[in-house]
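Example 464, ligand glycyl-adenosine-5'-phosphate.
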Amino acid sequence: MKKKENDNSLEKIVSLAKRRGFVFPSSEIYDGFTAVYDFGPYGVELANNIKATWWRTMTQLRDDVVGLDSAIFMSPKVWEASGHVKGFSDPLTECRKCHSRLRLDALLEEAGVFADEKMSEEEINGIFEKSKEKIKCPNCGAADFTPGRNFNLLVQSNLGNFTGDWSKEPTYLRGETCQGIYVNFKNVMDTARVRIPFGIAQIGKAFRNEITARQFIFRTREFEQMEMQYFVKPGDDKKYYEEWKENRWQFYLDLGIAAENLKWHKHENLVFYAKEAYDIEYNFPFGFKELEGVHARGDYDLQQHSKHSGQALDYLDPTTNEKFVPHVVETSVGVGRTFLAVLCEAYCEEEVAGESRIVLKLAPKLAPIKIAVFPLLKNKPELVKKARAVFDHLKLDWRCEFDDNGNIGKRYRRQDEIGTPYCLTIDFSSLEDDDVTVRDRDTMKQERIKISELENFFLAKLKK
Ligand code: GAP
């Protein structure tokens, strides 16, 4: 909706994210480190709020989903069993002149040749061969490329390998968090008193050797995933798949994303494990792209881990005595990708009294700072003292910020840019009547509220 009113170009979002301490390029003082980013002081708050909202929706509000936090490092056998060592790859080509390695689907897309990452390697290579004359290296302009080949995305490490030649026995940083869920399926079943259908949810880091780093934090080499695997009786897949599709769509509406900026994309070429896969796509400044995947994975993962580990990963239905390997419905989304979608959605430029203001209209539950507290003047100790007392009280319940710097207008602008829903000013009449001015970020309307009523006021306002 806001997209039509404002030009939400990615550069503006990147600039705001840097200027206001949301996102910094990793290792910036060393010229950065490709496709890795750090969250700054407001970024970490926003990311934490996204994770807390997801966790609340997926675990606290459900009595059939439990949580897990499995390690990033796992036995290398996990990645053999899951199929990632053999099958987790993207098509890559190399420029014969400058030797840049490039992602084939991205190269085709940039040249205006239709291709997307969901196509099979053969399809993309076929299109590449036919359209070679249209494609130029983005780094040197040459048009001479090696044939496409598959490049494995798993990130290797030398953890626990003391032989020196770790390429022979690599351990991996996990490429997706859900494998930690599969290998703990039995542990959870034996300890958490769960019955099918039930889910296991996890938030954690994942790592991929992405070939092309583009589009800010949309695709990074280190990122966090929020994944949930829902274990169902074979045959019930479809029913629960549809339920989860609906739930996940609603999740984004509840984050304040307009339905018109979301759409479903059905995968025609399924990845090696999937039986059915849909993505929820968001209308990023660079077009509709995948935000979340909802996948029907069948019993592929549990069967594979059962075969490779020699452990039975089946379920005995206590009422029917039926034994089966459960099927899985997965929901999977990146924290960084949700962060970017939420920023793009919230970013607004408005004209106010002949001046433009940038405001992040974030849902209050996501806003890094909920309430900013200002004494009208910095050099009036009685105002500062009273403002401090209000701040010290409110901070017990909400993330607040105290600011006594500059004129009130400037302080409002700063809070607007970081998305703070309410600013509260203590002025001279507050000293007399214990009222304060509360200013609403979106309407910019101001109202006087009694200090004793602030807690109830914000309790009602900050729920959303
Ligand atoms: N377990 C299934 C799985 O990992 P995926 O489609 O490869 O499926 C799921 O990833 C989600 O994780 C994506 O929809 C996206 O939100 C996020 N994601 C994947 N790769 C990413 C990357 N390189 N950078 C940021 N987020 C990523």
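Summary: The chain has three domains: 2-73+175-345, 89-152, 369-461.
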